[in-house]
Fold this protein.
Amino acid sequence: MPLLQVDDKGLACAAGGFWIDPWKPVPVAVITHAHADHARRGMGRYYAAAAGLPMLKRRMARDADIVAVPYGERFELGGVTLSFHPAGHCLGSAQVRVEGADDVVVAAGDYKRPVSPGTDPTCEPFEVVPCDTFITEATFALPIYRWDPPEDVATDIVDWWDANRAGPRERQKVSVIAAYSLGKAQRLLALLDRELARRGEARRRVFIHGALEHMIKGYRDQGVEMLPTFRVGESNRARGSVNPFRGHLVMAPPGAMAGPWIKRFGSAKDVDTAFASGWMRIRGVRRRAGYDRGFVISDHADWPSLVRTCVETGAKKVLCTHGNSETLARFLRRQGVDAEPLATAYGDEEDG
Ligand SMILES: [Zn+2]
Ligand SMILES: [Zn+2]
């Protein structure tokens, strides 16, 4: 019997009596990261990487029983040895290494690989963990998905912001950028901080939607350097001809962009919208979503990184979850790797 198997509750380890990222209540849950499709409420006890604890706590009920374990430290559940290893997806995200009597399985959760030296200043980079079976995500598993160096994307974002704040104040636009609340928002704030420093410019403040505040604070508490942020308050609502947001950058979760929230920044001609996401690689997606600009930056591995990672683990067997799992499995099979899709409930989060 395989060490890990999908059942109706999640990725189950019968020998160890636990589930990885379960989607239904279980007594013992091992969590890869705090995104909504991986970390759900209602579990008896949680095990998670210590670096992700502040973010996980914000997702969970106040009295949730969470055991935090540092990266690399081994612990036992049943007769099975586990350890967490950095996944490079967001702060505290972890791969779970599971060692049974006969084999080692690594469930990577969501992950990304560095594509440049400054890929992500907010979290530890992915660690290749040798294993017999590797469970990989396949969110962006199509050859068209290839990421540019994120430093270049940060340059593009500041150029866009500067173009919107050129000229006299009354003609400046509000730059509103959509970013997912855990991972992407903080990564952008860190990358933009570095980009302004590189240009020899002073730090600028960024206005944020209230839904971003908690996770940004979680990152700041862990010492992550980011641009200063101010919450867009009700009292800051633009009135009459005075629009206090002109020339500024506003960051919000994608869900806020279509609603009435964005109206406070003025009419359509006063606002320039953008979305920072791997999905922006497809021009039609941006156009249909109605954004003025798309910046291609993702916290998931791109196609070359997915293929490279599956090979580098040395795994004899690769199981693919999320998104284009069939495409990745088929490609790996052609390279001589025993690979197949694994049906799970992951991947329907706001994440990309
Ligand atoms: Zn995720
Ligand atoms: Zn996911």
In short: The longest strand covers residues 80-86. The CA atoms of residues 276 and 295 lie 5 Å apart. The first helix runs from residue 53 to 59.
